Amino acid sequence: MNPVKPLAAVASLMFASSAISADLTVYTYDSFISEWGPGPQLEKAFEQQCSCNLEFIAAEDGVSILNRLRIEGNKTKADLILGIDEGLLEETRKTGLVQSHNIDLSGLKAELNWHDSDFVPFDYGYFSFIYNSEKITQPATSLKNLIESDASVIYQDPRTSTPGQGLMMWVKSVYGDKAPAAWKQLSKHTVTVTKGWWEAYSMFLEGDADYVLSYNTSPAYHVVAEQKTQYKAAPFKEGHVAQVEVAAITANSTNKDRAQQFLKFLISKEAQSIIPVTNWMMPVIPGMELPDAFADLIQPQRIGFSPETMADNRKSWVREWRNAVSE
């Protein structure tokens, strides 16, 4: 669910019957297929390559993609899902609604250490709190520092948003069994908890909060697209939780060969040159030329949990968060 999404009004597309006529149907999140997102360029490039009709169908976020796939089950019209992340990976696999991709992933960045047989990564970044340096001259230096401050914060609901889920993992990583107390403290200076990333980031840009949960790559958007340098990601000394966004072929896809072709395209130089400057995340293959603004991004230490641990604990951690913030 992942970086500064294009800052223009985006209407979520409904899961429509038009997908039936497509040669290849991909469920993704709404900002991915917005006018300024990577979807339109990727669609055009892939259709030229495959001489086929690719159709993106949008949900609000990665969590929504998984929820929709569960509801539709084996009746889904999707050939692929694109936009869930590591936090949902094992939970998605356990549904039995995705299948092996059989694609060589040896060309991915070594730092990803990716060997999964069902999911192909297409970008990554680190969850971060973004602030306006023209308003805040001494930003928080740690998650504890932020939570124990009185700075106003906006973040996303972990039940519906992958960034919100990322924050849940982050708080649990740093606070462990004391996470409920941390959530209660944070709630005292939380402006609002939004359903998705877009609403939260838009409110922040309107000046409604000191910090918003987003990505370490978010400042690159403002520099490259707007020539604005005041938006920064606060580096936290405890480390940051990473988000690796992935795609997978659905179990009942009737066009696996073309779905595999799309996944190979997704990690090609052509596609990887599009994604960083439209989805504002890091490329998954080495040697890509990026705008200078990417070199200035914070490079956090990675913390968090394995996909297996997330699958085993997500429901109980969501319940812990809900109970803490509702008191």
Task: Write up this protein.
It is a single chain. It contains 11 helices and 11 strands. The chain is an alpha/beta fold and 327 residues long. Strands 1, 2, 3, 4, 5, 6, 7, 8, 9, 10 and 11 form an 11-stranded mixed sheet that branches. The chain is globular.
Spans of at least 5 consecutive residues whose pLDDT stays below 50 are 1-20
User: What is the rounded distance between the termini?
Assistant: 28 Å
Counting DSSP H or I runs of 4 or more residues, the number of helices is 11
Order of helices and strands: EHEHEHEEHEHHEHEHEEHHEH
Q: Report helical residue fraction.
A: 25-40%
Hey, roughly how much beta strand do the residues contain?
15-25%
* Mean pLDDT score: 93
The rounded Rg comes to 19 Å
The biggest beta sheet is recorded as: 11 strands, mixed
Which term fits the overall shape?
globular
Number of strands: 11
What class do helices, strands and sheet pairing give?
alpha/beta
Tell me which oligomeric state these chains represent: single chain
What can be said about this structure in brief?
This protein has about 325 residues and is an alpha/beta fold.
Features:
327 residues; globular; 11 helices; 11-stranded mixed sheet
Topology:
Elements: E1 24-29, H1 39-50, E2 54-59, H2 62-72, E3 80-85, H3 86-94, E4 98-99, E5 120-132, H4 143-147, E6 153-156, H5 162-175, H6 179-187, E7 190-194, H7 197-205, E8 211-215, H8 218-226, E9 231-233, E10 240-250, H9 256-266, H10 269-274, E11 302-303, H11 307-326
Parallel strand pairs: 1-2, 1-3, 6-7, 6-8, 10-11
Antiparallel strand pairs: 3-10, 4-10, 5-8, 5-9, 5-10
